[in-house]
Amino acid sequence: MNKLPRLKRTLTHLRSLNILRINSCSARCFSTNKDSEEKSNDSSPSLEFGVEKEVTPTENVKVESETKLSGFARSYDKFSHIDDKKSETPQTFTSLMRNSKFVDLGDPEGKVVTGEVFNVIGNDLYIDFGWKFYCVCRKPLKNEQYYVRGSKVRLRIKDLELSSKFLGAVNDVTLLEADCTLIGLISSPLQMAEQKARTRRP
């Protein structure tokens, strides 16, 4: 009589470890009713006591989908294939040009864009705003110490390419520069460093 509760305890422990799958037939082994014994004799038992049922491939897929993965297992499954390179068809120049932001911009004259200062010579700021040519703007007097390399600025476009015909020339001669007006500062590495220094002070 004492063996029956022990067996039940071990089976519940094995079930929690997903080692043994229990169905209605295995539960009948513990029942003492004669009706359940007759039913189990009539129907072919799919599980013998302590023996795992053979699972077909379709059932195996269902069992795996039913089992809930832990958070670590789900994240591991998600990020284990992150380095797998997907075969991408190379895009043509026309498709890249058609889907570029500057084509969506329409007529660029008067549009406000964001640029980055990549060089400072004297009071001249060399700003790259993503077009074919960069622009050169004068450093403003207000907060001029923040206009350094890596600063993000706001520009208004006048002309994307400064070019004109000189005396006797047939073709346009370009200065390899764009004409833009500097509106103001968005962010600067010096500003960020000053803010960090203020927050660190007690």
Automatic annotation (TrEMBL):
Pfam families: MRP-S35. GO terms for cellular component: mitochondrial small ribosomal subunit. Signal peptide: none annotated. Keywords: Ribonucleoprotein, Ribosomal protein. It comes from the Eukaryota. Residues 32-51 are annotated as: Disordered. InterPro entries: Ribosomal_bS1m (IPR019375). This is 28S ribosomal protein S28, mitochondrial.
